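Protocol step 6 of 9: fold each sequence in the batch and record its structure tokens directly after the sequence line. For illustration, a two-sequence batch is reproduced in full.

Sequence one:
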Amino acid sequence: MEEAIYRDRRVEEVAVIGVNHPKWVEAVTAVVVPKKGETITEEEIMDLCRRELSAFKVPKKVLLVDALPKTPTGKILKRDMRRAYQGVFQGP
């Protein structure tokens, strides 16, 4: 999934994580950082994934963010992201 999303020239970085979901227990979520000065929408990324991937591989949600959390050596901290976005599928 990450590879498919990276094909869009407007994407700087992407990380795919599992986030708690009330129906599916865990839902695949893509966290995307657009390139500086570029605009991309959640729907555009979802459409790209629908064209490039099997239906079951399409993320349930796309989150657009300014930066991904990383270690001092540049490794993406997916555990921190799961914790930060754990309530994204819950209602208000």
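Sequence two, same batch, same settings:
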Amino acid sequence: MRKLKIGFIGCGGIALAHAERLSSLNNVELTAFSDIQAERAKGLAAKYGGEAYLSWREMLKREQLDAVFICLPPFAHEDEVEVAAEKGIHVYIEKPIALDMAKSWSMVRAVEKHGVKSQVGYQMRFSPAAERVKALIDSGAVGRIGLATGSYWCRFIRTDWWIDRSKSGGQIVEQATHLYDILRWLCGDARTVFAFMDRLFWNIDGMSIEDTSGVLIRFKSGAIGLVSSTIGAVPDRWWFKWSIVGSDATLVSDSPEELTVYYASSKPARVETFREQGRDLMLMAEMDFINAILEDRPTRIPIVEGAKTLQLTLAAVKSAEIGRPVDVEYLTEYKPPVSGA
């Protein structure tokens, strides 16, 4: 069996999660690790084998890699994707892929020009509820979608780069982006957004991100979306909920593992419930990427999808900043403000 040689750019917490899962696969070999904190790279190399590097450029120069996992915070991206793609190295990159559209489109162009596979870490697309709804929508069972709603609520705070908008992009861009990506996947691309956001719960020195937001979306299909996000909800609870109203069915997911479908064709509405637990969504996204390379097929979440979801979330931030609707497609080089909610 052919084993793909894997390298890591960035060896923080998310890299640890990926390495642990990848090490369980028979068709990969963890070959090299790079991080500006040498101890991190050396730690992973000691645990999984391979070489440790302080410079990712040196790693890509010396190692014969098949794929690289880019596990950097959004502000730390340089030209890793472009350099890897030029060398024919396939790319798995964590979300958000960048903090401005000029950078993200540069990544997309490099991947497409050099024909390498890419995957963005939007693993919620592998959740049981999302997969089931996608199949129902594609089959025509839902009919025309008219309304989509979503909630990403938690009580979460960090006091590092995450609370600095110039480094993370804010909750919508860095965290709730998973929800925006799911709604894009199921309902299609957005045309216009109108957003409000504020800091109403947290008062921390250096904090410039929002802790509460509400976003109205007009999809290209004509459907309307409503998304709310907050990091001010109760501790130890994470709400990741969404609902879709179609002409022939209404779909309600109160967690990634469960779905209720109400069919409009009967009175009272016929109801189906679906629940599946135990999926490792990150592992599924990794395996899809690895198998796409080995089988020479598309991945579920190529880098262009990461760019489009980033474009939607940045448009929401821009709308809240200027106080009026923003056309998503015309947002090309916007960067989030350094301060202010």
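Proceed to step 7 once all outputs are recorded. Observation for sequence two: The chain has two domains: 4-122+284-301, 124-276+308-330.
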